[in-house]
């Protein structure tokens, strides 16, 4: 087995070789500043325009509605903070969900400090936001609804079109964090009534440090970074030309392979989930089984802790992630797993495996075979498992 | 992020398991914060720790500190075992990342909890030993219910 086996594509992806190849000349040959008047600058500007067009086309958006940023977090921060600033006169209420990425949640906390009121909608046991609950939460002074397109931890895909229709009906702006989705499943901002959408390059085999915010024409949000007139005056700073070329190329690539990639990932995902759930007792799938990102598997193993699991998997050449506190750098496990109702100890014992089109069935078998041994080993050391077995024995005797 | 010693004690932990004839057992921590340690002590009539085992639910550092703490108290008298502080455990492991220092504290508490249990059973006092406050006993029902 060729290791490492990379199963953390929700964290980041490998930059596709053709993407790197397309980017390289914009470091070494066509390095001009797109704002410059001479030909070298013109070449860079043309490349930026082409990337913008590719992205717009694949979102059902207009070219001038795509604004390049330094990544998903910047896009999320910009969408929320600038909307709050521009529409704060109209109202101070924002609706979001309890399972958003920290780029949204921490921005919301900051807005609360500035006097905004945020409604954090709960989710059901699969991590779904109810469109009816969104509608109920809308008030006279609601200026923005921000609901992520799909969750980065548990892969649940939200009913975005329904929420978009509700937002449109009530004339409230609708932003979605689509960082995990753009390039994975089709998105149409018109049909889904999305006013703003965040995406990132490195989640779709593009480079890191580049992303974009789609802003529907007519949405009056201002620049987040002051300076030059780049991005039609809405995002100052010399364009990251190689990055933009990279995300453009990655977008074209992602959409051209999407159908085949999705099919393959779903087959592997289902195989992996089935094997784990049938062969490892006291395990459960987190997130919806159906409305799920094609490449996401998230499973909790009772009686064990996630970081230990990750270190031992790494020892076998398997790259994965967990929602345990130890991996988040705090004492609390993942807010997403707690929001879907998992008790702390099960949230600590979660494992996220996110696939790519390069993974194979043999790799899945290798992962499950090793996982079984590792889970067994950690359980044999776990006082929680010891107590559980003693209770079971006692029950059997009675 | 971990020292080689921590990694070694995590991957090849010493003294994992239960002791049937333990006369001192202590469990500390809780599932909420993600670390639970249980230490078993077999203490002879001369108050020497003849054997010591542990079980731990927790991260790499929690397992490594449990392993090291059991190594350090084995063969010592109960009074000497009181000198196995979290600092001693950390030093023996060549340090821990700042966010993991609490694991070494938990190891110290687990040893103390097991010694307390022994002292209670024997009706003796161990100088400097106080009743453990973070014993899992208080949380046992919560943990059991959620299974």
Short description:
The complex is a heterodimer of chains A (398) and B (147). In chain A, 45% of the residues lie in helices and 13% in strands. Chain A has helices at residues 17-23, 25-28, 39-59, 72-87, 102-113, 131-137, 160-169, 230-233, 241-279, 306-315, 325-328, 335-339, 344-348, 361-380, 383-397, and strands at residues 5-6, 66-69, 93-97, 117-121, 142-146, 173-177, 196-200, 211-215, 283-285, 296-301, 318-319, 350-354.
List the helices and strands and how they pair.
The complex is a heterodimer of chains A (about 400) and B (about 150).
Chain A: E1 5-6, H1 17-23, H2 25-28, H3 39-59, E2 66-69, H4 72-87, E3 93-97, H5 102-113, E4 117-121, H6 131-137, E5 142-146, H7 160-169, E6 173-177, E7 196-200, E8 211-215, H8 230-233, H9 241-279, E9 283-285, E10 296-301, H10 306-315, E11 318-319, H11 325-328, H12 335-339, H13 344-348, E12 350-354, H14 361-380, H15 383-397
Parallel strand pairs in A: 1-11, 3-4, 3-5, 5-6, 6-7
Antiparallel strand pairs in A: 2-8, 7-8, 9-10, 10-12
Helix pairs in contact in A: 1-9, 3-9, 4-5, 9-14, 10-14
Chain B: H1 4-11, E1 24-30, E2 35-43, E3 49-57, H2 60-73, H3 78-81, H4 86-92, H5 101-122, H6 140-145
Antiparallel strand pairs in B: 1-2, 2-3
Helix pairs in contact in B: 1-2, 2-4, 2-5, 4-5
